[in-house]
Amino acid sequence: MAMPASRPGPEILLRLGKVGKFYGERPVLRGIEVEVRAAEVLLVVGKNGAGKSTLLRIMAGLARPEPGHVEHFAEPGQAAFLGHRPFVYPRLTADANLAFWSRMHGRNLDRQGRMALLSRVGLADFADEPAGVFSRGMTQRLDLARVFAQAPSLLFLDEPASGLDAGSAALLRREIAALRSAGAGVVM
């Protein structure tokens, strides 16, 4: 998984240097070196328990490496994480969830902007419903809208199709392609 540190090409958004991670005495990751560049999709593969989710969490800044270092070159707040456990508040409506997350990332989307995002993921008719009544797939789509509200330049996807039906999974693939075309770096 090592990449040369100075290959020419698109802008570097993230660099890992000899990243490792231990759970107790057990090493999960050792010596990972990788760069993520703009308009690039990097696929992380491995067996169950191999450390893929841990690596993505370290890359996204949600966990610390032990040892090693992570350098983020994307603008602060421009990295987004979508995991198999959604960052959605069940007591808030879909619209209120997007309002909250857009404010958290300094975007302050108005109702029209939030409705456009909900339409994009097929949830416009459920804008005023509490997220806690959503199916697993609907919750995952709301979480996807949360990520779009952030307009990330660097996106981390950990099992993003978990709970999605075929149509929603196709939507996800189209949106990932669109983000990449817009210059975002994607790690999944």
Summarize the structure.
By secondary structure, this protein is α/β, with parallel strands linked by helices. It has helices spanning 52-59, 94-104, 111-120, 136-150, 166-181; strands at residues 12-23, 26-37, 41-42, 69-72, 79-82, 154-157, 185-187.
Descriptive report:
This protein has 188 residues and is α/β, with parallel strands linked by helices. It has 5 helices and 7 strands; from the N terminus they run E-E-E-H-E-E-H-H-H-E-H-E. The protein has helices spanning 52-59, 94-104, 111-120, 136-150, 166-181, and strands at residues 12-23, 26-37, 41-42, 69-72, 79-82, 154-157, 185-187. The strands form 2 sheets. Strands 3-7-6-5 form a 4-stranded parallel beta sheet, sandwiched between helices. Strands 2-1-4 form a 3-stranded antiparallel beta sheet, covered by helices on one side. Strand 6 (154-157), helix 5 and strand 7 (185-187) form a beta-alpha-beta unit. Helix 2 packs parallel to helix 4 (136-150). The longest helix has 16 residues, at 166-181. It is globular and about 45 Å long.
Give the % helix: 25-40%
Give the termini separation: 14 Å
Can you count the helices?
A: 5
Radius of gyration from the alpha-carbon trace, in angstroms:
17 Å
What is the overall shape? globular
